[in-house]
Amino acid sequence: MSADPVPADPDVGSALNLDAFNRALIESVGVGIAIVECDGLKVLFQNKRFEQLFGSPANDITLDQLMQVPDLSGLEPGAVETCEISVKQKRRPVTLAAHFSVHEDDGRHVYMVEMHNITKVKELEYMIESYAKMVEKNERALRREKERAERLLLNIMPRTVYEELKTFGVTTPQRFESASVLMLDFVDFTEMAVSKDPLALISELNDIFTGFDRIVEQFGCERLKTIGDAYVAVSGIPEATPDHAQNIARTALLFRRFIRQRNATREEKWRCRIGIASGPMIGSIVGIQKYVYDIFGPAMDLAARMEQHAEPMEILLPEATADHIRGEFRLEPVAAREVKGFGTLDLFKLVGGDEELGVTLI
Predict the structure, then answer these.
(1) What pTM value is reported for the model?
(2) Where is the Guanylate cyclase domain (predicted)?
(3) Helix 244-263 and helix 198-218: axis angle, to 10°?
(4) 352 to each of 3, 104, 235, 269, how far by Cα in Å?
């Protein structure tokens, strides 16, 4: 009589299957996992992914032989310590996020070490950061170009006109009932341009015009334009002011003093003629492809005539402008002259005024 077969223990079979399942699960995940003794950091277990990241370590290897281990002495059960480490896999740098946690296994404490490959995330972060820096760099370049364009436009038109052009795309011609204009031209500049080094000459001219610009700004005037060695400034345009004649007179006197002071210390001696006139004018932007803000009216032409009649280092103005500033500035009458387009006019030299009151260059 044969013995009956012993039935298999269902509990034992299910335990083995569950252990095999857990091992298969740990081996299949894309995370490197290792179990490490807290005392001595001996590696007790590692899955295949962990081996791929750190090679196939020999037996009895410790974790600190594979990587730089952070200080885990204060790590409590249930807490997680995280750090980033870099390893090379087939000469390719790989960035890992290492997570350390403490667990109890058969009465001893072990570290659960998880290695997450975050190389793609880091590459994406680097690309985003690089793109953000590139965008920021382009924005800075665009801002500089915008500021440069604004400075260029402000060199050829008053700020209020520029603001109107920027806002509406067009500007409206304006009539100014009373304003003053100054025209300055240098004596013998043509001969200087032929005989002198052009770079040195233009450098000096640029230095002088820069000084003029500061003086113009000091008295609330506007540099309208420069034509070669000629400098044109206005007061009362585009912002009306009752002191336009006084402001342009102060500007003219300080121009002349600036030239005199400069000549005292320089080899090249500059001399200028200055004409001033006052009256109604029209200001507008002309041109489509190349903008220029210009003024029109008899006062503009008369200022040009005064500059032509002036002697070197002389400031000449007609009686109508002299009437605006009489009593505040020292004037000397000049014999009446025939002025082209205006007939015979009584003219005056502006010889001084409040320049002795302590007005200083910026």
Answers:
(1) 0.61
(2) 180-307
(3) 140
(4) 140, 100, 19, 21
The secondary structure of residue 91, as a DSSP letter, is T
CB 306 within 8 A of CB 276: yes
Give mean pLDDT in consecutive 10-residue pieces for the chain, a chain of 362 residues: 48 61 81 92 91 79 90 87 88 91 85 94 94 95 92 81 84 89 91 82 90 92 83 90 94 94 90 95 78 84 94 95 91 92 94 61 41
| Tokens matching residue 23 | 């091992």
Helical pair 159-168 and 119-154, crossing angle rounded to 10 deg: 130
State how far the Cα of 330 lies from the Cα of 348, in Å rounded to an integer. 10
Residue appearing with tokens 């095999």: 20
Helix, strand, coil distribution of the chain in percent, nearest 5: 40, 35, 25
- 329 near 245, Cβ under 8 Å? no
Nearest-angstrom CA–CA distance, 112 and 228: 82
CA angle 67, 68, 72 (to 5 degrees): 115
Q: Name the residue with tokens 């087939």.
A: 90
Q: How far apart are CA 286 and CA 290, in angstroms?
A: 8
